[in-house]
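Weekly puzzle thread! Below is a chain. First person to post its structure in token form gets bragging rights.
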Amino acid sequence: MTADVVLDDLFAYIDASPSPFHAVAAAAVRLEAGGYAEIDEQKAFEEADGKYFVKRGGGLIAWDRPEGADASCPMRLVGAHTDSPNLRIKPQPESERAGYRQLGVEIYGGVLLNSWLDRDLGISGRVVTDEGVTLCRIDQPLLRVAQLAIHLDRDANEGLKLDRQAHLSPIWGESGHGPAFLEMIAFAAGLDATAIRAFDLMAHDLTPSARLGEGGAFYAAPRIDNLASCHAAVSAMVSSNVTETMSVMCLFDHEEIGSTSQTGADSAFLPDVIERVVIASGGDREDLLRAITNSWCVSADGAHAVHPNYLDRYEPDHHVRLNGGPVVKMNANVRYASDAPGLAMFSRVCEAAGVPMQSYVHRTNLACGSTIGPLTAANLGMRTVDVGSAQLSMHSAREMGGSKDPAHLTASLRTFLSGVG
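Winning reply:
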């Protein structure tokens, strides 16, 4: 597919995925269209060979195992995460002040708080009833975190300070008017408000994904970190040619807050599923461990493109640019899992895929972030390399990427899953 076709498909995936739960649902639709069958993880894994996936909240694991493969068949695994920094709605959200109705929110992850000001926001997530879980999405401009006028904060341009408790509560109505919050959510989800036991809801930016810049060289969208990697991983899974290795894809939740959860990378979710697949193939733990030592994982997440206005924040000899191809991220203190063998392996992958490759090292005197890569490497004992597409405005409500990079990342992950490298 051309870069434009891949970018349009990425836009469709991002715009369909305002929450991690929607991202999993959208991925499942694409996997099923590609011949994958869903398995209930509460039931025994009776089949090993073929294309399958399991869902768990905001997490999903899919695999494609060649017919008749040995129980110790090596794996090619791609990991990404479905969550992005945002505003999460509190369990008892409603309040009234000075004639306004407002919602209480918690800050989820490392949010660029100012980027959520003066935006038209919708609501999305899941609601729970005694009958099960229902996805909910309201794509209407319901919420707004209004910024204080410059006349009342003359120093705002010298350094805006936002109190997470006091300044981020969005306005959503007038006091004494309109339905209760749960009634509005119930109507959107097609439920009775009295049936709702609980919810996991969040705000999302309503501006659609779009091309940006002269000739559409760039694109702007919400949640590029890390739905761009999720999209590339899913697209690679449904189009890769598996012959001698087992392809695995894991979309984790909660990476932005440390990955310690039932569906995070620092959980038993992935190790347990892999072990169950090996057992279903007739293998045992010895076969599992043999498979892991001969396998590779690519942890796919966003990478920092150099910002022309802040060159002093980047390592001078490792500038990464938009549209420059996948980025291998290196860190001597293993905040990224990449090492020399991993860099060499992925360079062979990119060469075979016909895409350019870049490398990134964080500036030494700045604290480096991390990814699911080191956690996956430690929990599985699997060789792992951290890669991703370059972007600007990381952790903003609306981020920026290069229009050619989604196709580059998809091609490299497809080649990797096919066993090249």
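Puzzle host: Confirmed. Bonus trivia for everyone else. The chain has a mean pLDDT of 96.
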